[in-house]
Amino acid sequence: MRKLILYIAASLDGYIARTDGSFDWLEHEAFALEGEDYGYSDFMQTIDTTLMGHSTYKAILGMDMPFPYTDKTNYVFSRSSHEDTEQVQYVNDDPITFVKQLQQQPGKDIWLIGGGQLNTLFFNAGMIDEIILTYVPFVLGKGIPLFAPIATEQRLQVTETQNYKNGFVQLRLSQAGTTGGA
Ligand SMILES: NC(=O)c1ccc[n+]([C@@H]2O[C@H](COP(=O)([O-])OP(=O)(O)OC[C@H]3O[C@@H](n4cnc5c(N)ncnc54)[C@H](OP(=O)(O)O)[C@@H]3O)[C@@H](O)[C@H]2O)c1
């Protein structure tokens, strides 16, 4: 079955964007590492589909660059209806049912881009097969959290860690299927 993978970066205090949605702090000049993409290009070879919450899609559209995932099938979740575009298809159906069906279809793995609301939905349903989380040594104090406060308590298993010279730390985690601090 196609895996659902959350590949994402967060500040040290667990935020994926400032409250206004900006994430320039991810690309602070102090973090520049020549030729390093934190496994992104290899990861992109393994997926053919992306999933985004509507806020994340709008944040991507607001970036000063062309839409970056034109060679993928892109789904945007919203509770209201919108016209599909050349780049994305909007989904109004229940996200859990929709993704379970998607996983039954043939294809490569599926990238859950985010953001926090969508992450939490799939996390609470125990559906995220792998989390590839890059921690950035930057404290924001406030912002949009990686998981919303409605996230259920769960222990995760770390399957791999990688340290980068700029202080980034990448964890690969899986949902261990247990609750509580055990
Ligand atoms: N650091 C990183 O690597 C990274 C990665 C991804 C995203 N981000 C940032 O994360 C921020 C957005 O995160 P977020 O948590 O605010 O929002 P989000 O999860 O991206 O999107 C929330 C929206 O998704 C739709 N939605 C949520 N639950 C739904 C459901 N059950 N059924 C159907 N649609 C549903 C709703 O859209 P409607 O309002 O249209 O109904 C909701 O407003 C952005 O600023 C983005 O830049 C950062």
From TrEMBL:
InterPro entries: DHFR-like_dom_sf, RibDG_C, Riboflavin_Biosynth_HTPR
Limits of the Bacterial bifunctional deaminase-reductase C-terminal domain: 2-169
Taxonomy, superkingdom: Bacteria
Pfam families named among the record's database cross-references: RibD_C (PF01872)
Protein's name in the database: Dihydrofolate reductase family protein
